[in-house]
Automatic annotation (TrEMBL):
Name of the protein this chain belongs to: L-ascorbate metabolism protein UlaG, beta-lactamase superfamily
Keyword Hydrolase belongs to the record: yes
GO terms of molecular function: hydrolase activity
Superkingdom to which the source organism belongs: Bacteria
The species this protein was found in: Herbiconiux ginsengi
Annotated ranges, domain Metallo-beta-lactamase: 24-219
The keyword Membrane is assigned to this record: no
Keywords: Hydrolase
């Protein structure tokens, strides 16, 4: 285990700013105001705008984009923001669609980003299942990320994943994980009777599986199809006896871990 700090700021929904190893990394940019957001053949409703605008966030070194096909992970303003980013690490399918600075990775492959101190930040793509098993063809490809670097705490960003089996695979292959940014919210849509992201009890169970010292939930507020809340997260972690690992942030709030 390392003692190097990582700072996480929740911007809103799945969007968080992670400062690690002297680098500023943004997850799934969603900067549009509230209102309906076209998402493929359907429409998702954004209830709350971001706590920080893209201008407020300022310069970042990279974006980790779990997927580009759903508006709650990349809305219109987030999409317009991407060309200003030096590198966007995402799925291979998204990289083909986005072009520009997008780098596409498949599960268990990686890219390396240069750190200001001369070291590297290794970004490993890991699997994510956006719903129950068998949903991949319908939901499209999604990935999560694990960040590694000399002297840095191993940090897992789950992306839109609903599978604890995937969490177990990440822990087995790339653990121990010290910090986890987990997408929760128990997302559901009318056309499917299933959760598309982790529920609050599953986020708490994931914390135990990973053995992490800090879990920062994101993707738990701001959209109408999120069915679970930060209050349910607090209750779930208390039930598992893991309240000391839970770091609940209000939109705009940051914490150094």
């Amino acid at each position: 285990m390392t003692t190097s700090p990582v700072t996480v700021q929740l911007i809103g929904g799945p969007t968080a700013l992670i400062e690690i190893g002297g680098m500023r990394i943004l997850t799934d940019p969603t900067f549009s105001p509230p209102g309906p957001q076209p998402s493929g053949a359907s429409t998702l409703t954004k209830l709350v705008g971001p706590a920080r605008t893209a201008d407020d966030v300022g310069v970042v070194d990279a974006v980790l984009l779990s997927h580009d096909q759903h508006a709650d992970n990349l809305d219109e303003a987030g999409r317009a923001y991407l060309p200003s980013v030096p590198v966007v690490v995402t799925t291979q399918a998204a990289a083909e669609r986005l072009g520009g600075t997008a780098v596409g990775l498949g599960p268990w492959t990686h890219t390396e980003l240069s750190r200001p101190d001369g070291g590297v930040l290794r970004v490993v793509a890991v699997p994510a299942i956006h719903g129950p098993d068998g949903m991949e063809a319908s939901s499209g490809p999604v990935i999560g990320f694990v960040l590694h670097g000399d002297g840095l705490p191993t940090t897992y960003v789950s992306g839109d994943n609903a599978s604890l089996r995937v969490v177990e695979e990440v822990a087995h292959h790339l653990g121990p994980v010290e910090i986890a940014v987990l997408f929760g919210g128990g997302a559901r849509v009318a056309r499917l009777d299933a959760y598309l992201t982790l529920t609050s009890p599953q986020v708490a169970r994931a914390a135990g599986i990973l053995g992490t010292r800090a879990v920062v939930p994101v993707h738990s507020e701001g959209w109408a199809h999120f069915t679970q809340s930060q209050a349910s997260l607090a209750a779930a972690f208390e039930s598992e006896g893991l309240s000391d690992r839970l770091v609940l942030l209000a939109p705009g709030e940051s914490r150094t871990l």
